[in-house]
Write a structure and sequence with these properties.
- This protein starts with a strand and ends with a helix.
- Helix 1 links the parallel strand 1 and strand 2.
- It has ten helices and 13 strands.
């Protein structure tokens, strides 16, 4: 457990521009105070329990941690277990017992819309007041807006679900991250002359709009341009669940069993059904060349 830290508070799904502003402030405060920059998230989205509705997440916990550490400089990431007890915890107890006595925070940073405690009664104003009483610093980050609207995980989900990946990437400040261990497929890509790395989506994670994407794929610390397909194979027999298939341009070797990080950058076209394997191969070749031309490989 981290001690003597500046702690960012939030769920942080996607790590978008708003989250980045909050985490950047956390890192700056920690540097100025000689403390550890840390972030607190939750293992379950609060809406799942509060409203009884599952939220299709942009990232897994491991992906959130990767983004917070690599892109935002967090040295520690804590995932609290969000259950009935946490949901109904009085907001004062959350601050005094959990943040101060258990986590030993010296300064906290939250967003303008952060709510916590039983019935969401804790808010930034009450958090600041309680922190003053306890001799702890507290920063509240104002709303970040792009194109006149607030940057939010909900807005980004809608964009990804409707194929507007490039707009989502603008709000994220980075490619939409999908990670997983490469699984063995039916070998259809290799049969067409374009071997693909198959990565299933983690349970509860949003599958973006089906179709072909320009992306970057990272394996063993090296990034490659990638032509990515997300979908269910309508031409060769529908899959039971969406699958991400990445053809890494410039990579030679065996990817089976390796951890792959795919950063989706742009949605090139929707999923299509082709009349023949030859037609499918011709279109895959065209899509792959679009990606190669973009990266000039």
């Amino acid at each position: 457990m981290v001690h003597d830290c500046v702690l960012a508070l939030g769920f942080f799904d996607g790590i978008h521009l708003g989250h980045a502003a909050l985490l950047d402030r956390t890192r700056q405060r920690a540097q100025a105070l000689g403390l550890t920059p840390a972030a607190l998230s939750f293992d379950t989205h609060p809406d799942t329990l509060v409203f009884g509705t599952a939220v299709p997440l942009l990232n897994t916990m491991a992906e959130r941690e990767l983004l917070m550490r690599r892109l935002c400089g967090m040295e520690q990431v804590i995932f609290a277990h969000f259950d009935e007890a946490m949901m109904h915890m009085p907001w004062q107890v959350f601050v005094e017992d959990y943040l101060v006595r258990q986590l030993h925070v010296k300064h906290v940073v939250c967003g303008h819309d952060f709510h916590f405690g039983d019935c969401g009664q804790g808010d930034p104003a009450r958090l600041q007041e309680k922190c003053r009483e306890l001799g702890i610093g507290c920063d509240v980050i104002p709303e970040i807006r792009v194109d006149g609207s607030a940057v939010s995980s909900t807005r980004i989900r809608r964009l990804l679900q409707t194929g507007r990946c490039e707009e989502a990437v603008r709000l994220l400040g980075h490619g939409q991250l999908v990670t997983g261990r490469v699984t063995r497929g039916a070998g259809r890509g290799a049969g067409l002359g374009f071997p693909t790395a198959n990565v299933p989506f983690a349970p509860g994670v949003l599958a973006p709009a089906f179709g072909v994407y320009r992306a970057e794929a990272e394996v063993d610390g090296v990034r490659y341009p990638a032509c990515v397909n997300i979908g269910v194979h309508p031409t060769v027999g529908a899959l039971p669940a969406p699958l991400l298939e990445a053809n890494l341009i410039g990579f030679a070797g065996d990817l089976y069993g390796k951890e792959l990080a795919v950063w989706l950058q742009a949605h090139l076209r929707g999923e299509m059904r082709f009349e023949s394997a030859a037609a499918l191969r011709a279109r895959v070749l065209y899509d792959r060349q679009l990606v190669a031309d973009f990266y000039q490989t």
